[in-house]
Specification:
Blueprint: E1 3-6, E2 21-24, E3 27-33, E4 36-37, E5 42-43, H1 48-65, E6 73-80, H2 86-96, E7 103-108, E8 118-125
Parallel strand pairs: 6-7
Antiparallel strand pairs: 1-2, 2-3, 3-8, 4-5, 6-8
Helix pairs in contact: 1-2
């Protein structure tokens, strides 16, 4: 099975030794996205809601570059430095996703790259 590297300038560039996403067959493995603004590579300014929306927008840009959309995500992992923001994630996720929702995990972590408060990665299946 061949691998295809997915890249878009509508999402932040990789800040390490990884690709934005890798497509293997009909499955797309999307790397973690933090609330970076693609054009500036700086963290978005604003409250937690603004940061979460930026992460979903970044994921959506990568999904579209791979030929899919957020609705094609089968598994979503959410990493938060403060799990008290979990209700905010749920509220905002409902703006981006409709049923049937993807499988999901929410994980509390000590820290994230660039001091981010939220990061998400995903696995997408293209039918």
């Amino acid at each position: 099975m061949s691998k295809e590297i997915i890249y878009t300038d509508k999402a932040p560039q990789a800040i390490g030794t990884y690709s934005q996403a890798v497509k293997a067959g009909s499955t797309v493995y999307m790397s973690g996205q933090i609330p970076l603004v693609p054009e500036t590579m700086e963290m978005v300014e604003g409250d937690m809601g603004v940061q979460i929306r930026r992460v979903f927008d970044n994921l959506q840009a990568v999904a579209q570059a791979a030929g899919g959309d957020l609705k094609d995500i089968a598994k979503l992992n959410i990493f938060l430095t403060d799990l008290s923001h979990f209700p905010t994630v749920n509220e905002i996720m409902a703006e981006y996703f409709q049923q049937p929702y993807p499988a999901r995990a929410a994980i509390g972590v000590a820290s994230l790259p660039k001091g981010a408060a939220v990061e998400m990665d995903a696995v997408m299946e293209l039918g």
